[in-house]
From TrEMBL, chain A:
Cellular compartment(s): Cytoplasm, Cytosol
Job description of the protein: Is involved in the conjugation of reduced glutathione to a wide number of exogenous and endogenous hydrophobic electrophiles.
Positions of the GST C-terminal domain: 92-225
An example molecular function term from Gene Ontology annotations: glutathione transferase activity
Catalytic activity: RX + glutathione = an S-substituted glutathione + a halide anion + H(+)
Keywords: Cytoplasm, Detoxification, Transferase
UniProt record, GO biological process: glutathione metabolic process; toxin catabolic process
Major localisation: cytoplasm
Family: Belongs to the GST superfamily. Tau family.
Keyword Cytoplasm in annotation: yes
Protein name: Glutathione S-transferase
Automatic annotation (TrEMBL), chain B:
Keyword tags: Transferase
Protein name: glutathione transferase
Protein species of origin: Carya illinoinensis
Domain GST N-terminal intervals: 2-81
One MF annotation (Gene Ontology) recorded for this entry: glutathione transferase activity
Listed EC numbers: 2.5.1.18
Lineage of the species this protein comes from: Eukaryota, Viridiplantae, Streptophyta, Embryophyta, Tracheophyta
Length: 225, 224
């Protein structure tokens, strides 16, 4: 598809949201310029309520006046519209199914298990840590199978599942640095430990996932509240 | 023996979506029925993460999660019509959006309204109706969510046509009334009448017995 003007493509979001990060990374992979409209935490703009009346949540992609919600659906949309750019989903239907399966797992199971882990205490924290670790072990296995020795789930380049999981583990890496718990473990999940570094260093991701120091700032603030 | 096998449970709506997709597209498959209270080692091997049905086995490779399977079927048997997803990326995104919305919001809330009683049931029903309103609006001017023929989103909502009247009979409550949701009720009828759909429904009396027993068990487990 031909170049769209910047105002043609808008992303409604907030930079800390891993779901918003997915959309921005996908647009970067396709070299699509977009306007980033940041929502203020704690309030929802008229545009958000209008463009996502069902969920009233970010991210929303607005393209040529049409709105699309739900981050993984948006990423697939981006892949299909800007089809001349690097592919995000693999071409083989079975490989696509595997990536979709694990991306759905991240949303349905893994991300919920991560919630409030940095503010939990005692027994609750231990239980959460166990759940997240189990998830990471499963994802490590998936990574080994999918990457076949290459840097990313998608192979040599970042793909759909990398985009789905990357922002979550980007945050997890910061949670680990806060101390008290080590979720990304070089022994249990060596592939993922290496992968998250490669992911965060990738050109399409840099600038979308802030440096670990900035993430730590936010986490500290959350702990303080 | 067909190169496609589908692991299902006779009463579960999720594998039924896959049955519909395969039937509608005329794809040959073998059905393997699972007893969910005694899962086969094959099922546990093919879906170790969730241990659930449906699982589609194609040339020996397993795929789980009904929406993932539907996309796989659409992409693998490209020449088999009808297409479940439209060609236009925005329309495809909308189909995926509504399918996900159905599973995230409608299904759990209708289920809650079915298995709960009293105030809990009332609240679940109010929430279900709040969300069904969006579907009612989306159906304006459409025979199916997919247009003229049954599509991805229709298959995902198909359980409404199949199970709501069963739930209503058992629980003695109207879940979807014709005053508030005339278009939805019309859609349910159109879906039932679409080719290949009703032929594959489990027998109604079996469904009633099954879900009545399930509801009683769940109600008995509720803390008083």
């Amino acid at each position: 598809m031909a170049n769209s003007s910047c105002s043609d493509v808008k992303v409604l979001g907030a930079w800390p949201s891993p779901f918003v990060m997915r959309v921005r990374i996908a647009l970067n992979i396709k070299s699509v310029k977009y306007e980033f409209l940041e929502e203020t935490i704690g309030s929802k703009s008229q545009l958000l309520l209008q463009s996502n009346p069902v969920y009233k949540k970010i991210p929303v992609l607005i393209h040529g006046g049409k709105s699309i919600s739900e981050s993984l659906i948006i990423v697939q949309y981006i892949d299909e519209v800007w089809s001349s750019g690097p592919s995000i989903l693999p071409s083989d239907p079975y490989d696509r199914a595997i990536e979709r399966f694990w991306a759905a797992y991240v949303d349905d199971k893994f991300f919920p298990s991560m919630q409030l882990i940095n503010t939990a205490q005692g027994e609750e924290k231990a239980a959460k840590v166990e759940q997240v670790t189990e998830g990471l072990v499963l994802l490590e296995e998936a990574f080994q199978k999918s990457s076949k020795g290459k840097a990313f789930f998608g192979g040599d380049r970042i793909g759909f599942l990398d985009i789905a999981l990357g922002p979550m583990l980007g945050w997890l890496r910061a949670i680990d640095k806060m101390g008290g718990v080590k979720l990304l473990d070089e022994v249990k999940t060596p592939g993922l430990v290496q992968w998250v570094e490669s992911f965060c260093a990738d050109g399409a991701v840099k600038g979308v996932i802030p440096d670990i120091e900035k993430l730590l700032e936010i986490l500290e603030k959350m702990k303080g509240n | 023996m067909a190169e496609v096998k589908l692991f299902r449970a006779w009463s579960s709506p999720f594998p039924l979506r896959i049955v519909w997709a395969l039937e509608v597209k005329g794809i040959e498959y073998d059905m393997i029925y699972e007893d969910l209270s005694n899962k086969s080692s094959m099922l546990l091997q093919y879906n170790p993460v969730y241990k659930k049905v449906p699982v589609l086995l194609h040339k020996g490779k397993p795929i789980s999660e009904s929406l993932v399977i539907l996309e796989y079927i659409e992409e693998t048997w490209k020449s088999k019509t009808p297409s479940l997803l439209p060609g236009d990326p925005y329309q495809r995104a909308m189909a995926r959006f509504w399918a996900k919305f159905g599973d995230d919001k409608i299904l759990p809330l209708i289920w809650e309204a079915f298995i709960k009683q009293g105030k809990d049931q009332e609240e679940a029903l109010i929430a279900a109706h709040e969300n069904l309103k969006y579907l009612e609006v989306e159906l304006r001017g459409k025979k199916f969510l997919g247009g003229e023929t049954v599509g991805f989103a229709d298959l995902t909502f198909g359980w409404l046509a199949n199970l709501v009247s069963v739930f209503e009979e058992i629980a003695g409550v109207t879940l979807i009334d014709h005053e508030k949701f005339p278009l939805l009720l019309t859609w349910m009828k159109n879906f039932m009448d679409a080719p290949k759909i009703r032929e594959t429904w489990p027998p109604r009396d079996k469904l009633i017995n099954h879900f009545r027993a399930l509801r009683e068990t769940l109600i008995a487990k509720e803390p008083k």
